[in-house]
Amino acid sequence: MNATATLYPRRFRPGFWTAVFVLLFLAFCAVTVIRYTKGLGAVTHLSDRFPWGLWIGFDLLCGVGLAAGAFTLTAVVHLFNLKRFEPIVRPTILTGFLGYSFVIVALLFDLGQPWRIWHAIVYWNPHSVMFEVAWCVMLYTTVLAVEFSPVVFEYFGFHAPARIIHRLITPLVIIGVLLSTLHQSSLGSLYLIVPSKLHPLWYSPMLPLHFYISAIGAGIGMVVLESYLSKRAFHRHLEMDLLEPLARGMVVCLGIYGLMRLQAIHRNHALGSIFNFSYEGQMFLIEFTLGVILPVVLMSFRRLRSDPDWLVGGAFLAVLGFVMNRLNVSITGMEAASGTRYIPSVMEIIVSVGLVATGMAVFAFAVRTFNIFPGGPVSQTLEQEEGA
Hints:
It contains 16 helices and no strands. The protein has helices at residues 3-7, 16-38, 54-66, 69-79, 89-110, 119-122, 129-155, 159-167, 169-189, 207-234, 240-267, 279-299, 302-305, 308-338, 346-369, 378-387.
């Protein structure tokens, strides 16, 4: 099969979800034009009293955290030499690379002067947490691109550079793990400077460690969800022999994270505010129940972990709880001190949903085109099955 035929696989047929994506993309483009011609005030409900909203809480904090499966899986395979997980490394790296790429795009929407995003490269401020996050995100996105590059090189027949990357994969993974550890935790450090503004249910001097451990747990959950969605979209089997052990690791991470959260709340003397039926208390209970208690309880039973439906359900709850935690830290926990109630505008939601939809579309294109899963491109595999 030649390159042109593979780039435009005959298997693809527009359907309902294609139409939904096209509509979302058109709305996304329209909001983009308004944002860059009329400014943030025309498309967001942000203000001087509440300057960080959905685009930071969801697009940035969640986008970076849910991509943590990339450094976790690459470390498991290449540093701990657990080669049996290698079949799911490439799709996980692709997911991580797309996650970080769209985080950068989201930042271009949120920054008041996005044309100055390159300033962190030239104007150094090593005392700033934002500076460290900016550099780590840029460098780790580069590392993910290099780790994924052998897939592209193999597609175009450039086997020599692909072999070079394979020889360098161990130091690349080490660099990636270091960078991920730094910026996953530093995203929590951003909120250490607001102890009087962030609600005690979420504030803790240990926020960097909370962010790091929860990202590993949710990143593993995202690996399970990505495998399940690939199964549904591309008629693949679910690698239960690989995902079930990952679920055990997710239980350990979420269990440790949950205990640390409860200890921090106890130290803040905020246990009473969980059950006083306040808005913050209710949001915490929903977040902690969905993201910690239910996944840990369900995935602690091998019989449930070994069932695909329960496994995917537990992973979904872990990811949903993680998303709620980041939104609670960035929005719910900050609202009382700001004296305002922030509700994202429709156009803010369109941008966030549009970025997620675009990421899924690019993932589907890459899987149909490149050798992401064992057995070759999905389009080629499907054609071989039809021919058989």
